[in-house]
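Please check this one:

***
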Amino acid sequence: MYKNTCQKQNHPVVLSMMHWLPHVGLHNTERMVEENLAKEAAENLQLQLLQEEFNCDPNDKVTYKKQAKQVMEKAVGRKKMTTTEYYRRRFEMLESLEQGIDDGSTLTPDFAFKLSKLFNQNTRNNTSIILNSTSVHYGRGAGDSGWGCGFRNLQMMISSLAALPAYRDHLQQFQDKIPSIPKLQSLIEDAWAIGFDPRGREQLMGKLVGTRKWIGATEAFVLLSSLHLHCKIVDFHSRSGSKVNTELFKWVLKYFQKDLNQESLLKPGSVELANIPILYLQHHGHSRSVCGVQVNMKTKAASHLIVCDPGMTKHQLSAALNGNKTCSLSKTLNSFKEEKYQVVAVVGISTTEQFERQKDVDTLAEKIYSQKT
């Protein structure tokens, strides 16, 4: 329970207001002081609630490395992992963490090829699909289960971007060297240190390294922006009595169609590969990457979003791909029921001016509201 520890008689706001409002009546002064304190208390409570939502427990001493070790030890105890395998995987994990590079244990590298093959086999003549040409999949691992979805999405985005022609040279440092989750935490802290998103930094108490704090769309925006990528962040809000999913689907379809004028190139039953970055999609409690869109050729509207869900393990994804199941990867309009979504898109390489402007996330966020029904 929140408790306001500030005492009215010695609160600095009271003293300063008494100083610059000598001609205001006592009643008015006290009322303004009370309003100011109430506003401050509300802001503090909101901050506390945000910190709780993002798992900002200062007493949580479990790190990525410690959690992975605990999970693997339990697997040995349940005879799901041999002692030899435990020491091998532990050594590989420690080595990769030392280098700041993901060990690839949750990676499906040929995801784009397998996804294209899957939809080629299942796409009907009245639909068409646009897919990102370089998408990979990073699933949850032993060290990040329950909190790492945002970081896994960032790994997917960085890997895909580094393979796209427009970004290959710019992100050469990340080719086959995708940052580990602890390294991504460090990169976000580095971005904060040079002035990116001071409000978000405060909400997360200025620290990610060595924690299991969740991140959201703004932290993804911050990290990608700090790599001198020109990014957009879009908030989709629901109005009373209307659904935000329709506006989200419209926006995503327009985004994927802009590459090579895909709208005019689409043919019924086709699967088109586009050199356009995947999207970071956030809603309450979870985030996914959008790597494509399915179009109804009769209505010319998006009927499904093709998503890479970091909540899926490598094994679960393999089962879906090999089992010829598109349902876990292709999501209908009605499956998007949240009242708010956030999307982060990379739209180019930033200029010096754009790099500086993107430090203030709040002023850049585009807001789209659902139409009233």
Q: What stands out?
A: The chain has a mean pLDDT of 85.
